[in-house]
């Protein structure tokens, strides 16, 4: 059986995807180390961030969608955050069972502490990189994410 033939763009994207997989693993490990002293993990920090960014309390399914993550995994993390007192559950006027996830004061303090650690870390990581290159990379990654989200939406509708 012959190897599938990739276009030059397909080859370049394949190389980028493989590096993104490696980068994701390294970022998660670095994030875990960075916030371990706060009793957080990268996953918990990420969910807290999604709650902070949301304009209002959201159900777990919406948080998972915003994170591009599996609802069951986000539910497990939210349950852990609830046990730690970092989030609370509120009534959802639009759905009986899908409670809203609400950040507690303790959760806000933990998130803010993580962000205070993150700022000098990300500044060191960015040192020597060209801002224009970072902005271009961000635009490319955003375009790829949107294409994949569109593909997933089309699959769900069919």
From TrEMBL:
> Which terms does the record give in the GO molecular function aspect?
DNA-binding transcription factor activity
Q: Mind telling me which SMART domains this protein's record contains?
A: HTH_MARR (SM00347)
User: What is one Gene Ontology biological process annotated in the Swiss-Prot or TrEMBL record?
Assistant: response to stress
Q: Which Gene3D superfamilies match?
A: Winged helix-like DNA-binding domain superfamily/Winged helix DNA-binding domain
Can you tell which superkingdom this protein's organism belongs to? Bacteria
Organism annotation: Mesorhizobium amorphae CCNWGS0123
Classification via Pfam families = MarR_2
Domain HTH marR-type: where? 13-146
Instruction: Check the record and name the InterPro entries matching this protein.
Output: HTH_MarR-typ, MarR/SlyA-like, WH-like_DNA-bd_sf, WH_DNA-bd_sf
What protein does this entry describe? MarR family transcriptional regulatory protein
């Amino acid at each position: 059986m012959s190897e599938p033939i990739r276009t030059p763009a397909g080859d370049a994207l394949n190389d980028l995807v493989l590096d993104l997989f490696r980068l994701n693993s390294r970022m998660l490990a670095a994030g875990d180390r960075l916030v371990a002293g706060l009793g957080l993990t990268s996953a918990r920090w990420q969910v807290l961030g999604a709650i902070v960014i949301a304009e209002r309390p959201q159900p777990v399914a919406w948080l998972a969608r915003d994170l591009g993550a599996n609802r069951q995994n986000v539910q497990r993390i939210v349950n852990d955050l609830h046990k730690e007192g970092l989030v609370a559950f509120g009534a959802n006027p639009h759905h009986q069972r899908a409670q809203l996830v609400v950040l507690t004061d303790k959760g806000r303090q933990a998130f803010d502490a993580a962000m205070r650690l993150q700022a000098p870390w990300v500044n060191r990581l960015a040192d020597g990189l060209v801002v224009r290159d970072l902005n271009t990379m961000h635009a490319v990654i955003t375009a790829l994410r949107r294409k994949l989200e569109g593909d997933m939406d089309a699959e769900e509708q069919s």
